[in-house]
Task: inverse folding
């Protein structure tokens, strides 16, 4: 998979490839209590080395991970990424997180709309899905504002360092944007 070229943007956010200079900001955000709680597969604590390794693999055959930045200032607001499912390459998974100070301003919704539109236009997929922790109501609201359809609660659907937790599954199909 290759990163969108030109980069995806609207009047408020720009999605760009991660840069080595972003490693400290990634580590800071991934050590935030809410981020680490709701993304249970992140290492904890999340180190600078973890961030550097993430940056090295942000674009691969099966995934693209981009920085969500403020279009006017270039400030990193969060991350958004899409990956093909190993068991069925016609299904892609999308996810996102935001810096604590960027929450509640619409950046995640904007980024999700931009990358979802790109994925459904450019990738040979029949389904784009995302999962959110059942207790993460703000993330579920982002999915719904971006046009994703809530499908089901997947019991013990998230596994991580704290055991298994329930998650909500959402989907977006070609033609639904």
Result:
């Amino acid at each position: 998979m290759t990163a969108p070229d030109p980069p995806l943007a609207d009047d408020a956010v720009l999605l760009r490839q991660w840069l080595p200079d972003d490693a400290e900001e990634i580590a800071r955000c991934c050590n935030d209590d809410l981020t680490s709680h709701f993304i249970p597969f992140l290492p904890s604590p999340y180190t600078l080395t973890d961030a550097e390794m993430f940056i090295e693999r942000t674009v691969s055959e099966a995934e693209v991970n981009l920085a969500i930045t403020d279009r006017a200032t270039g400030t990193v607001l969060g991350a958004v990424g899409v990956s093909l499912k190993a068991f069925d390459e016609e299904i892609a998974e999308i996810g996102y997180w935001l810096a604590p100070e960027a929450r509640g301003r619409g950046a995640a919704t904007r980024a999700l709309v931009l990358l979802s539109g790109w994925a459904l236009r450019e990738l040979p997929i029949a389904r784009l899905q995302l999962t959110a922790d059942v207790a993460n109501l703000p993330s579920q609201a982002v999915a719904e504002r971006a046009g994703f359809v809530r499908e089901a609660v997947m019991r013990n659907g998230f596994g991580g360092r704290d055991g298994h937790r329930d998650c909500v599954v959402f989907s977006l199909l070609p033609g639904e944007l």
Remarks:
- The mean pLDDT is 94.
